[in-house]
Structures are given as C-alpha cells and as structure tokens.
Write a structure and sequence with these properties.
alpha/beta; globular; 5-stranded parallel β-sheet
C-alpha cells in the first residue's frame, strides 16, 4: 500500500520509527512533514495527509501528535476521511472492520513505539467487513455531504 504520514513537532520523534516499520512491512510511505522539531501546528499536517488520502493519491494515512486527538479532528474535516484515534490494537482493528477508517492517529505522549507498531499492524491487517457496516458508512457519508453543501 501507498501510505501518507504526518505529525506535528511532538510526534516527530515517533514518526521515523513508524515509517521504518511500515517500510519493513512492504509499504511505500510518503512523509508530509514536519521535518524539524520546531513548534508547528497539527492542523497543517492533518489536512495535508487527509487530502492526499481523500483524493486517492495515497491508500491510507497515519497521523501522530501529542494525543492523536487534534490531528485526527483536523483530518476528519476533509470530505471522505474517517480518521480514528487509537491507543490500543483492538479498537484499531475494529475501526477498519466496522468503520472502514482510512487514517489512523495516535499520540506520542500516550503510547510508546512498540505499542504504536502493534496498533499499526492490527489496523493494516484488518479489512472492512461491509454488510450491515456498509449502510452505516453510507449514513456517515450522507451526513458529511449534507453539511458540506
């Protein structure tokens, strides 16, 4: 898969660990920044990664900030994005199976690198189940469309 990744200055130390892990798993990764520890604003990178996933330049995205919350909220403002914040593997897996999430976010102040790898692996290995869940995804898309007109 072709995966977009971004962070803010707080997530920048964990980001190369996750990039290396994704590449080890055989994925192509594009880093959307930042590229220094200088203070920056997470909405910039949440939007960049989300737009790339929404326009299908990348299959999926990974975002990292202090908690994963702010950067995921930013990403979720882009039409077609279903970003989830996860601090453990089970929710990551179910977010893909039931919600067809296309961006995974987590916090570098919340989890360590080994747990982050486990979360990423579970998320990537899971597949959308469709069925009763597809109707709910359609409902979410309808809400999004209704409110972006």
């Amino acid at each position: 898969m072709n995966i977009a990744i971004g962070s803010d200055h707080v997530g920048i130390e964990l980001k190369p660990v996750i990039i290396a892990y994704l590449e080890e798993l055989g994925h192509t990764v594009e880093d959307f920044g930042p590229f220094s520890t200088e203070r920056t604003d997470y909405p910039i990178y949440g939007e960049k990664v989300a737009k790339s996933v929404a326009n299908k330049t990348h299959d999926l995205g990974v975002l990292i900030c202090g908690t994963g919350v702010g950067i995921s909220i930013s990403a979720n403002k882009v039409a077609g994005i279903r970003a989830v914040v996860c601090s453990e593997p089970y929710s990551a897996k179910l977010s893909r199976e039931h919600n067809n999430t296309n961006i995974l976010a987590f916090g570098s102040r919340v989890i360590g690198s080994e747990l982050a790898k486990m979360i990423v692996k579970e998320w990537l290995d899971a597949e959308f189940e469709g069925g009763r869940h597809a109707k709910r995804i359609e409902m979410i898309a309808g809400i999004e469309q209704e409110n972006n007109q």
